[in-house]
Amino acid sequence: MLSPINVPSLKDVFVKQLEELILSNKLTVGEMLPSERELATQMGVSRPVVHDGLMDLAAKGLVTIKPRVGTVINDYRKEGSLAMLSTLINHQWKQADPALLDSLLSFRQLVESETARLAALTRTDDDLKELHRLLQREAGVENAPAATVAELDFEFHHRVALASGNIIYPMMLKSFEPAYTDLTTIFFSRREVLPVVVRFHRDLVEAIEARDEKRSMAVMKKTLIHGVEVLTAALADTAKDRKEDR
Fold first, then answer.
1. pTM for the full model?
2. What 3-state class would DSSP assign to 56?
3. Those residues with Cβ within 8 angstroms of residue 69's Cβ, 6 or more apart along the chain or in another chain
4. Contacts made by residues 231-234, CB under 8 angstroms, sequence distance 24+
5. Would you tell me how many other CB atoms lie within 10 Å of the CB of residue 218?
6. Domain with CATH 1.20.120.530 in the chain
């Protein structure tokens, strides 16, 4: 009856706090952080926690650790790694940054059009079985909460990426899952879009099953273009409602 209690490690808390400060520009590019000893004292943690946290931040490209000099804040747009990209998107899309959102949607269109094309070429019988299983589940969620539908939608798109045979594409999608499902929850809050999406998904599975790469790519593009149009309108309405509430 009892389940484990998951408490973030001190290092994770340290990293998250520094990420927040950097991404909100409270720590600026080129600024030097205090020494590990000073950071440990200020934040009430041990020096090994600070050291390991700074190493994580360096791996993401947020900081550069200069021996005998100190730790300097980077411009993550130039130095950021794939790990940083996931942190950035899952942290900052909620700040309503139009450039970031446009970049995310453009990235999704580029990558997922390719995963659909590759899936038509490399899919296995197991891939088809899983895709058909997901279609059956989609047929029964018309009354489900938008968040539940969003999770199922992500599972479908992730499964197409897995069927592509490319190792990197599904991992890239998975790393953006929190932002992806948050955005598609807003999208599916418009209940009229669900039947349209289900039809797109059925068409896509048919194209993948027929090994028709051009049609698979075209259907995925139509699916994503429709998604951007509806999501843009939904986000505008949400922003308007928030403004009126103030």
1. 0.76
2. helix
3. none
4. 231/105, 231/183, 231/184, 231/186, 231/187, 234/186, 234/187, 234/189, 234/190
5. 17
6. 94-245
Which pair of structure tokens corresponds to residue 69?
A: 């000099």
Other C-beta atoms closer than 10 Å to the C-beta of 40 total 18
* Domain 94-245 homologous superfamily, CATH: GntR ligand-binding domain-like (1.20.120.530)
Tokens encoding 12? 């994770």
Residue ranges, CATH 1.10.10.10, the chain: 10-79
Place of tokens 């909620």: 94
The CATH number of the domain covering residues in 10-79: 1.10.10.10
pLDDT in tens, 2-39: 556 566 789 989 998 998 888 888 899 999 999 999 99
* pLDDT digits 0-9 by tens, 98-119: 777 788 888 889 999 999 999 9
Q: Which of 194, 156, 190, 185 is nearest to 173 (CA)?
A: 156
